[in-house]
Amino acid sequence: MSNVAGAPGADAATPAEPVAERGRSEILHFAGRNPKLLIGAGVVLTLLLTGLIGPLFVDHGPNEYIGPKNQPPSGEYWLGTTSFGQDIWAQFVYGLRSTFMIGALGGGIAFLLGTTIGFLAGYKGGIVDEILNLITNVVLVLPTLVVLIVAVSYLQVEGLLVQGLFIGLTSWPWAARAVRSQALTLANRDYVDLARLSGRRTWRIITSEIAPNMSSYLMMSFILLFGGAILIAAGLDFIGLGPAGGVSLGLMLESSMQWSALQLGLWWWFIPPGAGITAIVGSMYILNVGLDEVFNPKLREL
Amino acid sequence: MWRYIGRKLGIYTITFVIAVTINWMIPRFMPGDPVRSMLNRASVSDPEALERMSDYYEGVFGVDAPLHEQYLNFWAGLLRGDLGISAWLYPEPVADIILRAVPFTLGLLLPAIILSWIVGNYVGAFAARSKVLDNTVLPVGYILTATPYMWLALLLAWALGVVGGFFPAAGGYSFALTPSFTWPFISNLLTHWFLPFLSMFIVALGGWAIGMRNMIIYELEADYSNYLQALGAPRRLIRRYAFRNAMLPQITGLAVQLGTIISGALLTEIVFNYPGLGMLILNALNNRDYFILQGAFLFVVIGVLIANFIIDIIYVLVDPRTRVQMTGGAS
Amino acid sequence: MTLRVKDLKVYYQTLRGDVHALDGVSFDLADGEIMGLAGESGCGKTTLGKSLIRLDGRMRHVGGTIELNGAEVPITDERAMNPLRYHEISLIPQYAMSALNPTRKIGRMINELLRARGVRPSKVADELRRRLELVGLDPDVLNRFPIELSGGMKQRVVMVMATLLDPSLLIADEATSALDVSTQRSVAESMVEFRDRGFVKSMIFVTHDISLVYQMADTVMVMYAGQVAEKGPASTIINDPQHPYTKMLIGALPEVGSTTTEARLEGIPGTPPGLLKPPTGCRFKERCPIASEECDETPPLVEIDTGHWAACWKTGR
Questions:
Q1: ipTM, 2 decimals?
Q2: What is the pLDDT of residue B122?
Q3: Which of the residues A281, C99, C198, C270 has an alpha carbon 20 to 30 A from that of A139?
Q4: Smallest Cβ distance to B228: which of C113, C145, C147?
């Protein structure tokens, strides 16, 4: 998990600015002319569309042996073929699909867990905070991938859903921490006090008073978790702990490694999947910086 | 100060206990029979040896004993340094196998972490100097942090190893040599070490540079920086303060990033067939040797905990604020 | 004459256009004068304070001049301005609580600042200790980190540090608003004492707390919507204000000498005009009870009595 990426002064907890106060038009104005945001979003969307539409134009399964072996990229096989005659372009577009899926699943689960725990800890305080903080610290210290290797090696992963669940369960802590420190500052504001005095439920206060005021921050946390989940999944796939029989960019890297693409010089086998992962995650991080600059006027000046 | 350290030690102890418990629990509650699946993969043809192995694993998994007893036995073995016996390399003890791999992993990790941290901090601080620099360093940094460790490893192995032929692309040292403290062996070791190290160094560099860049911008906007500017202090002084103050959260970042970098090391080793823990884990997985897997897991956890503790202590020593708070200065 | 500001215009650049934060401000500050600068928030008083020492990134100097001790202050020229900072013009900022580098011992930070400004720390070391004692601090604070000091202590350290080189002009921007009442009073007293001892020649004390101004200031300048409304001796402004805005401002006070905070201006109906496109004529006319047709013309700032200036058509010329 990358906590440095994108988070402005990750530990320094810049206070979340209420968005509504400054008006949407100004935000849109800055969003429309922030190159980081535009380029990042552009690349992510292009790849997402490729993953969504690409497979529709491939009339054979990604793992089928359809063509000549070890073909370099050509007009017919855009990204060449593997040493079994599989179409790498087909694997790539299907792989993009599952890569986005795992990001959404793993990142989404981690986001839900992290924000829930963070909000509760920051808002409730006291013993609840102590206990949740302890859990967070323990999970934070454990090296995610290594825990997953042990867990996944025993409890066979059947599909993306289970893999996403595993990743989500292990990669939430830093988000919980960040959300907690934000919620802590917001929980003491007047309007939250007012809501509390008027006898509203904790959960209502969190969802209606606290969360909207840090929506930009939450959005950026989600993007970071999304990217992190993709990287962790790729690592697991690469070790051979990916969903059996599936297609993903990480699994492509694994099979290229396993069948000596490196020694055989089949560069078209291992370059596209890695480039795909890097492009997705990297442009998401850059998109995040763009968002940060748009929402956080202080950063615009540099 | 001691309270702080005590608290941290408490968290690490709990983490360790939890890690050990996970380690103990998973094979016992997994579907199927771990002993059978381990023995199926073991490449032992001698039936007598197979019998012995099977007795041993049945004994270790202690099917007859009640669960709490199994759990206590597990801890007792662990505290004696007994991590069980490998099925893949039967009858070698797991602890020995792991200890053979650890120096390779540490030799990659420590230089990669420390050098990338130092260089990354300077690059990040440098980037915060001007918009032009920032606009180049920032995207490059983010792309590097987004790069899967194994992919950059593959690229370097291919470009500088297979195609360029400058460095060997696989192994820890040439098999023709026997390990010894001689120059040929050490230089051989270094040439094999270089590419995996370089690949890890480059990926990790990006994260540090970005972290420093963000922190230093934050510090340059801080009140004390503004005040010094108003009093006409030169840019140099303000930057020096900002750099120093931005360094402190970067030390904490070191602890946070440790898990990611270790994962990166494991993946990088696999690409280069480098005989460290990563390669060991891969082999254990392929041979269903759960003992090695669990042993490696515990080693990594212990390493992470020790490193975290060292970082905590360094932080206390370096940041006057925590130091003062902990020795109980005036409010 | 220490400071002479003439028709100063400083605008903030924003997306929607220029905000006319200072729109033709003129005043004089005599040797040894402590001037209280009062007005509602957003009237330009903080901008004026900043303009005298350092324009921040979005501030643009549009017109007007500043003279200090007869020489022009080159506020638009960073390089030429720098020698004046700290030596001639110094600042106690609004954020004095966080104005010190948190990871340096205070003494070391002051020494590094002095050295960077071309002053040998040893030359002023004795003076530094003497002044710390003067404001009631143990010189041992120099060996401490800022976090070890209370708010009031930090405030005093910043005050001593800011005035160490005996500047001609000290700008204190809301320097006491974060402190409790008794600390406020003693810090204010120390400031007067610093002036009396000649550590600073003259001082502009930006505040929204008029009662505090009355205690320590010689003169008071009231600003409204980026312009000077009235300036005069403190007692005149408090007891016999002429400008209708000042009258309302003083009238809104519960009682002179009491110290309530921001809420005191709620007594005036209406809000100040936006400074993005300021209205023509007198800027107070919308809220002014005695406004008439002539107020469509901008009233000049004229001296209605010795040392008493006001910008209003109604102040009997």
A1: 0.89
A2: 92
A3: A281
A4: C113
Tell me the CA end-to-end span of chain B in Å, nearest whole number.
Answer: 16
Helix A144-154 vs helix A215-239: angle between axes, to the nearest 10 degrees?
A: 50
Task: Provide the pLDDT for residue C274.
Answer: 75
Virtual CA dihedral for B41, B42, B43, B47, nearest 10 degrees?
-120
Our CA-based measurement puts residue C283 at a distance from the nearest CA of chain B, in whole angstroms, of 31
Helix (H/G/I), strand (E/B), else coil: A235 = helix
CATH homologous superfamily for the domain A51-67+77-299 = MetI-like (1.10.3720.10)
- Whether residue B199 has pLDDT greater than 90: yes
Closest C-alpha to A103, from A276, A273, A287, A280: A280
C57 touching chain A per CB within 8 A: yes
Helix (H, G, I), strand (E, B) or coil at C75: coil
Work out the minimum CA distance from C58 to partner chain A, whole angstroms: 9
CA distance C279 to B61: 87
Boundaries of every domain in chain A: 51-67+77-299
- Structure token digits, residue C241: 């204000």
Residues B56 and B99 in one domain: no
* C288-310: pLDDT as tens digits: 888 888 888 888 888 888 889 88
CB contact under 8 A, A302 and B131: yes
Distance CA B146, CA A282 (A): 5
Contact C15 A301 (CB under 8 A): no
Q: Residue A209 to residues A27, A134, A182, A199, A216: CA-CA distances in angstroms? A: 21, 26, 13, 13, 14
**Nearest-CA residue of chain C relative to B236?**
C116
Cα Rg for chain C, rounded, in angstroms? 20
Strands, E assignment, chain A: none
Q: Is C102 on the interface with A (CB under 8 A)?
A: no
Name the domain boundary from B20, B44, B79: B79
Best CA proximity match to C88, nearest among C162, C188, C29:
C162
pTM for the model stands at 0.84
Strands of C1-121 (E only): list them: 3-14, 17-29, 34-38, 59-68, 71-72, 89-92
Does some domain include residue B331?
no
Across the interface, whether the CB atoms of A153 and B285 are under 8 A apart is answered yes
CA B63 and chain centroid, separation? 35
Nearest CA-CA distance, residue B139 and chain A, Å: 7
Average pLDDT over residues C143-155: 88
Q: How many domains does chain C have?
A: 1
Any idea what the CATH number is for the domain that residue B142 is in? 1.10.3720.10
The residue type at B114: I
Beta partners for residue A39, in sequence order: none
Does any CB of chain A come closer than 8 Å to the CB of residue C15?
A: yes
Number of folded domains that form chain B:
2
Instruction: Please report whether residue B84 resides in a domain.
Output: no
Top-ranked range on mean pLDDT: pick from A197-211, B61-75, C31-45: C31-45
Q: Is B223 in CB contact (< 8 Å) with chain C?
A: yes
In this predicted structure, which of A8-22, A225-239, B267-281, C26-40 has the lowest mean pLDDT?
A8-22
Please report which residue ranges of chain C form alpha helices under DSSP H.
45-51, 78-81, 106-116, 121-134, 151-162, 181-196, 210-216, 234-239, 244-251
Does C105 reside within a domain?
yes
| Residues B150 and B298 grouped into a single domain | yes
Q: What is the pLDDT of residue A7?
A: 38
Q: Give me the domain span that covers residue B265.
A: 95-326
Buried b (16+ CB within 10 A) or exposed e, B126-157: bbbeeeeebeebbbbbbbbbbbbbbbbbbbbb
Residues B290 and B314 in one domain: yes
Band (pLDDT 50/70/90 cuts) for residue B70 is confident
Judged against a pLDDT cut of 80, whether residue C253 lies above it is answered with: no
State how far the Cα of B167 lies from the Cα of B156, in Å rounded to an integer.
Answer: 10
